Amino acid sequence: MCIAVSLVSVVGYTANLLTDGHLPPRSVSAPSVALATGVLALLTCGLRRARRLLIMICCGFTVLSVDRLVHSAPMDHAAMGFLLAACAYAVPAWPEMKVVLSRGRASAMVERQEHHAGLLAGELHDEVLQLLALTQRRLDAARALDDPGALRAAMEDASRTLDEQAGTLRRIIATVSPAAVQGMGLAESVTSLARQVADENGLVVDVDVQGDRPHACTGDNGVNLAVYRVAQEALTNVVKHADARHITLALTCRDDGISLTVTDDGRGLGPNPPRATEGYGMQGMRWRCEAYGGTFSARTAGAAGAVVRAVFPLRNCRKTRAS
């Protein structure tokens, strides 16, 4: 937020200065830059060069803010001195400034990783660990009875439980690292995912694949995985929250981009849900799209149901990967 306020205020101040007019931003732009850079200087713990640079900018725009009222030539010179010193000091301070600029995205990535790690730990604890502990207690109880028949029945039950938990572990592993994305094209892997969701939850999932390259979509496995994850999370949200019976998944693959649209006939998202109330699943889908230069939207479709749409422009994806 501080970086955004600083950039907008600097642009407003520069535009006013070049036009030599009295635009409204000029009266608030200099104090805004001073306040935002001052707050950033307080937050940049351990980055001495970045802090010094921000302090210079803050001092320069603070003097400009005061000069707006008193119109003193020495104060103009002082402000110019602070800003010129900041320009000269920006070269050695730039590596640390890049760290400041990237902290927001890095913290968002860590937050998403911690969230997914928590989900994985919860599934392992609630499904696998609990049933294995129950199976062990049943075997111990049957062994204590010294009854071959009871022990044989307990062993058969344990064998069935182990088979079920092996399937659960395979599902969790596929969720963490979907091999289908590497082994098949994006269209095939998304179709397979939709078929699995339909079979496991008794839903009707229609898949519509269009485009001039439906089998490969793109050579970038990172983009393929991002599209697959968005489809996976969208279908999971429908199963958990929408109370829907029919889902339509549309995948369009072209040279200039990939678009994914998931529509259901459930209860919808409510009237214009704000971003602040989005859950981790919705935020994760939005973050994956924005990380590759794409766009994400989620809205209620008519009287009922919801529409989730993600667009990945491949030119932006290639630029992101190169940088």
From TrEMBL:
<dbReference type="GO" id="GO:0016301">
    <property type="term" value="F:kinase activity"/>
</dbReference>
<keyword id="KW-0547">Nucleotide-binding</keyword>
<dbReference type="Pfam" id="PF02518">
    <property type="entry name" value="HATPase_c"/>
</dbReference>
<keyword id="KW-0808">Transferase</keyword>
<dbReference type="InterPro" id="IPR011712">
    <property type="entry name" value="Sig_transdc_His_kin_sub3_dim/P"/>
</dbReference>
<keyword id="KW-0902">Two-component regulatory system</keyword>
<keyword id="KW-0418">Kinase</keyword>
<keyword id="KW-0597">Phosphoprotein</keyword>
<keyword id="KW-0067">ATP-binding</keyword>
<dbReference type="InterPro" id="IPR050482">
    <property type="entry name" value="Sensor_HK_TwoCompSys"/>
</dbReference>
<dbReference type="Pfam" id="PF07730">
    <property type="entry name" value="HisKA_3"/>
</dbReference>
<feature type="domain" description="Histidine kinase/HSP90-like ATPase">
    <location>
        <begin position="222"/>
        <end position="316"/>
    </location>
</feature>
<protein>
    <recommendedName>
        <fullName>histidine kinase</fullName>
        <ecNumber>2.7.13.3</ecNumber>
    </recommendedName>
</protein>
<dbReference type="InterPro" id="IPR036890">
    <property type="entry name" value="HATPase_C_sf"/>
</dbReference>
<dbReference type="InterPro" id="IPR003594">
    <property type="entry name" value="HATPase_dom"/>
</dbReference>
